[in-house]
Amino acid sequence: MKKKCLILVLCLLSLFSGCAPNAPSADADKTKKSVDQTVVVDRTKPQAIPESELVPYEGAVEHIFFHPVVAYPALAFDGDQKSNGIDDWMVTAGEYQHILEALYANGYVMVDINTIWSEHTRDDGTLYMVRNPLMLPPGKKPIIISYDDVNYYQYMLTNGFTYKLILGENDQLWSWGLDPEGQEVVSQDLDAVTIMEKFVRTQPDFSWKGAMGCIGLTGYEGILGYRTQTDRDNPSPEFEANRQKEIEAVKPVIAKLKENGWTFASHSWAHMAFEKRGIAAVKDDTDRWMAEVGSLVGPTQVMLYPFGSRLDGGDVTKTGECFRYVQSLGFRIFASVGPAPFSKVKPDISAVICDRMHPDGTTLRWSRDKYLHLYDAWEIIDLSSRPNRPYDRQPG
C-alpha cells in the first residue's frame, strides 16, 4: 500500500517527484515575524440591498479554481525539478490578489456552489436536480471559486508555500509557515484562503449572502496542513496517537472555515484519475475519503475531479457504475475542468456535471482571450518572479 500511495503522490499533476521534510511544529525554535494587520469589517450584518431591487440572473455561472498559491517565488521558481510544474499550475499570492481585485472591479460576486442547484422529488419518488432561480443586485454576475489540494503536501514545504491554516489573532484564520530564511511567519497575505478572507473583510459585497470558496481536499497527506491520514502499513500506537492529536488540532480550523462561509468538497483520497480506474478502486478510494476526511469536514455533495478526470469517462451522456456508486453516497455536483463555463443536469440520475476554468501559469501565459471577461492576464502575470519561459506576447 505504501508503494501505491507513493506512486499516486508522484503522479500528482504529473510534475512533482520526491517529498520535502516534515513540517516543523508550531513550537519549533524559530524567530516569529510579527503578524500583518487587517481592516475588520462586520460580515454578520446583512447586505443592505432590498429584495425588490434584485434582478434575475439567467446566464452561465462562472466557475474558476485555484491550487495553493505561491507565497515565496524565490523558493518555488529556484530552477529545481518542481519549478516548471509550479509555474504551470499555480499563481503567486500577488497574482491571486490582483485576480480577486479584477473580478470585483468587473462586477462579479461569489456565490455558494451548493445554492445553484437543488434536488427535488418527482411524483414517482425519483430524485432529480434543477437549477435554482438566482437573484442578484443589478449589474452583478455570479462566480463560484473552488480550490484544489488544500492539504499542504510535503513537497510544498520547501517549495515556497505556506504550511498550514491556524486560528490566530482576533480569532481569525491565518497561515503558518517558514520563510526562505527559516523564520516562522504567521500571515494573512501569503495563502489563498487567508487572502480571500482579508479581501472579503475589506470588500464584503464581493461575497453574496456570505458565500466563500469551496475547498477541495484529498486525504493521503492529511488536510489543511494537519496529518490526519491513516497509514495501513504503519498501524503503530505512536502513529495513531499523533494522528488523533492532529485531528483534534484541525477541528477548530474546520469550524472557523464553516462559520465564515467556506464549504468543502471531495478531491478523492489519493488524487485519483477516476476515468482510468475501475469500480473496486473507486469504491476503496471514496470510502476512505468518507472515513478520513468526510468524517472531519462533514457531509458534502460536491466532487472536484482530480486532473479533471470524470467518473463517466468523459462521455457526459453515460452514467456508469462508478458514477452511480459515488452519487449514492450523497454527491450531486461533479466538477471537471474546461475552457469555458459549462453545466448540465443529468437526465437519468440526480446529479449535475460542470466544468471549471483554471487561472494558473498556463492560462496566464497562453489563454488571455478566454479569460478577458474575468481579468486581463497581461495585467496579472508577474514575469519578474516566474521562470523565463515562453508566453504569447510581452505584456504592455
Notes on the structure:
- This protein has 396 residues and is of the alpha/beta class.
- The protein has helices spanning 2-11, 73-76, 83-89, 93-105, 192-202, 237-259, 279-297, 321-328, 361-366, 368-371, 377-380, and strands spanning 32-33, 55-57, 62-66, 108-110, 117-121, 127-131, 134-136, 141-147, 164-167, 173-178, 184-187, 214-217, 263-266, 302-304, 333-337, 342-345, 352-356.
- Strands 3, 4, 8, 12 and 13 form a 5-stranded parallel sheet that branches. A 4-stranded mixed sheet has the order 1-11-10-9.
- Strand 10 (173-178) and strand 11 form a beta hairpin.
- Helix 4 (93-105) runs parallel beside helix 5 and helix 7 (279-297) packs parallel to helix 8.
- The N and C termini lie far apart (51 Å).
- The model is unreliable at 1-41 (pLDDT under 50).
Shape: globular
**Spans where pLDDT lies below 50 across 5 or more residues:** 1-41
How much of the sequence is in beta strands? 15-25%
Largest sheet: 5 strands, parallel
* Averaged pLDDT: 89
SSE order, one letter for each helix or strand: HEEEHHHEEEEEEEEHEHEHEHEEEHHH
User: What's the helix count?
Assistant: 11
The counted number of beta strands is 17
Termini separation comes to 51 Å
What's the gyration radius in Å? Answer: 21 Å
Q: Label the structural class.
A: alpha/beta
Percent of residues in helical segments? 25-40%
Characterize this entry briefly.
This protein is of the alpha/beta class and 396 residues long. Helices cover 28% and strands 18% of the residues. Helix 4 packs parallel to helix 5 (192-202) and helix 7 packs parallel to helix 8.
